[in-house]
């Protein structure tokens, strides 16, 4: 990519309406799940050429990294909730390729940050280089490999991502993909009922709701069931290109709705 | 003894949940909202739409929910938009009695449902009037 293309891409990114800023000037990198936090953070490192401190935050959890030349040079500081004695020892220490103990401590730290909850934001600040070696630091590719991040992963469809997040909460699901295939997960005695909902009664229901909601925001997720202990609920979700039927236990309703909100915003 | 009205009960429930902007108590068989508690005045069209939506979710075109896999009548239904969710609850002993709760997506649904169910059953049983 030549310099002009790079600048044009960055200007386009800056102009993108999807970029959100907090009142303190922090930019929202991830809403928590989409895009995956580590992938988004590695992209930021990859786009940082001059020496900067990248301050990542998730609610009260904070991680400040020193970055230059598209490489991670060191850890500036971390909040107490994710710090360990190993990571404290790493602060302002130059990171070196081939130091397995360093990489293991760093990976564990990143996993703790990834497991924190809430949107990920970033601020940048001036900083000093850890150590004196100009050639130190870890490349984005080596970090991606260590952290099991696929930098080229295409974002999944909103509905596919929704089902992925719902994952362990689902007793069963059927999904019609954009190419018309029906994918089934989970074993259930109600498989034929779920397929019937996917094919006919679910779409008819949302058409009916759309008719009622004229002028109001369109409801693309409808759920019905029982609220008692061990009771089941059935949800029908659809997007422009896909549809899915979910069978889940009533006590996980909140998680299902959170996943929907996360992926459809 | 201070008697509590249905409005008081609904107001009290809504005040516990800032994410809940409105609650309506309705008669599903008559498709009519009887009492509301709301931060803003809800237009009649919006109230009618709530009843129609609940009717469609619980009873469908043929009298049973389109989303049923067991054939049993459901007591809880939800619709979700990018802006918010609407929860519908039917009373335990009187399925025509319905509570509709309009909330933002951040609402703790488990806590809300746990609080709303006793409130609905109190209203439905005539404990509050």
Instruction: Give the strand line-up of the largest sheet of chain A.
Output: 1-2-6-3-4-5-7
Going by CATH, the architecture of chain B would be 2-Layer Sandwich
| Sheet having the most strands of chain A | 7 strands, antiparallel
Question: Which residues of chain A sit in consecutive blocks of at least 5 with pLDDT less than 50?
Answer: none
What's the CATH first level of chain B? Alpha Beta
- The structure class of chain A reads alpha+beta
Number of strands of chain B: 5
Quick check: average pLDDT of chain A?
A: 87
Number of strand elements of chain A: 12
Largest interface: A-B, 40 and 37 residues
Strand content of chain B: 25-35%
Order of helical and strand elements of chain A: HEEHEEEHHEEHHEEHEEEH
Characterize the overall form of chain A: elongated
Rg value of chain B: 14 Å
Count of helical stretches of chain B:
3
Give the terminus-to-terminus CA distance of chain A. 32 Å
Structure commentary:
- The complex is a heterodimer of chains A (265) and B (129).
- By secondary structure, chain A is an alpha+beta fold.
- Chain A has two domains: 3-146, no CATH class; 158-264, Beta-Lactamase (2-Layer Sandwich), CATH 3.30.450.
- Chain A is 36% helix and 25% strand.
- In chain A, the strands form two sheets. Chain A has a seven-stranded antiparallel beta sheet with strand order 1-2-6-3-4-5-7. A five-stranded antiparallel beta sheet of chain A has the order 9-8-12-11-10, with helices on both faces.
- The longest helix of chain A is centred in the last third of the chain and has 22 residues, at 191-212.
- The radius of gyration of chain A is 22 Å and the shape is elongated.
- Chain B has a single domain, classed as Beta-Lactamase (2-Layer Sandwich), CATH 3.30.450.
- Helix content of chain B is 33%, strand content 26%.
- Chain B is built from three helices and five strands.
- The A-B interface holds A 190, 193-194, 197, 201-202, 204-205, 208-209, 212-213, 216-227, 232-236, 247, 250-251, 253-254, 257-258, 260-261, 264-265 and B 46, 49, 52-53, 56-58, 60-61, 65-70, 72, 74-86, 89, 105-106, 108-110, 113, 117.
- Strand 10 of chain A pairs antiparallel with strand 3 of chain B.
């Amino acid at each position: 990519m030549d310099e002009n293309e790079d600048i044009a891409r960055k200007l386009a990114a800056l102009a993108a309406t999807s970029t959100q800023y907090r009142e303190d000037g922090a930019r929202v990198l991830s809403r928590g799940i989409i895009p995956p936090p580590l992938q988004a953070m590695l992209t930021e490192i990859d786009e940082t050429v001059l020496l900067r401190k990248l301050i990542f935050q998730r609610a009260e959890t904070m991680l400040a990294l020193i970055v230059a030349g598209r490489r991670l040079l060191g850890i500036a500081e971390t909040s107490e909730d994710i710090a360990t004695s190993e990571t404290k020892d790493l602060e302002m220490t130059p990171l070196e390729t081939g130091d397995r103990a360093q990489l293991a401590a760093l990976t564990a730290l990143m996993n703790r940050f990834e497991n924190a909850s809430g949107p990920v934001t970033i601020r940048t600040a001036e900083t000093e280089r850890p150590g004196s070696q100009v050639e130190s630091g870890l490349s984005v590719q080596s970090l991606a490999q260590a952290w099991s991040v696929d930098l080229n992963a295409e974002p999944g469809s909103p509905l596919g991502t929704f089902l992925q997040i719902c994952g362990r909460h689902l007793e069963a699901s059927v999904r019609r993909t954009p190419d018309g295939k029906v994918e089934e997960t989970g074993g259930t005695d109600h498989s034929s009922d779920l397929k019937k909902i996917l094919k006919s009664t679910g779409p008819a229901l949302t058409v009916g709701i759309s008719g009622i909601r004229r002028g109001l925001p369109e409801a693309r997720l409808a759920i019905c069931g029982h609220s008692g202990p061990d009771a089941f609920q059935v949800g029908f979700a659809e997007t422009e290109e896909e549809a899915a039927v979910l069978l889940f236990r009533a006590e996980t309703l909140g998680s299902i709705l959170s996943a929907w909100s996360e992926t459809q915003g | 003894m201070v008697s509590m009205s249905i409005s008081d009960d609904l107001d009290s429930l809504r005040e516990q949940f800032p994410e809940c902007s409105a609650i309506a108590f309705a008669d599903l068989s008559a498709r009519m909202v009887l009492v509301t508690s709301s931060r803003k005045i809800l237009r009649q069209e919006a109230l009618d739409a709530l009843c129609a939506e609940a009717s469609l979710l619980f009873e469908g075109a043929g009298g049973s929910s389109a989303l049923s896999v067991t054939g049993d009548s459901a007591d809880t239904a939800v619709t979700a938009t990018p802006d918010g969710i609407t929860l519908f609850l039917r009373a335990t002993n009187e399925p025509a009695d319905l509570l509709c709760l309009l909330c933002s997506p951040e609402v703790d649904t488990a806590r809300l449902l746990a609080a709303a169910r006793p409130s609905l059953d109190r209203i439905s049983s005539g404990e509050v009037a």
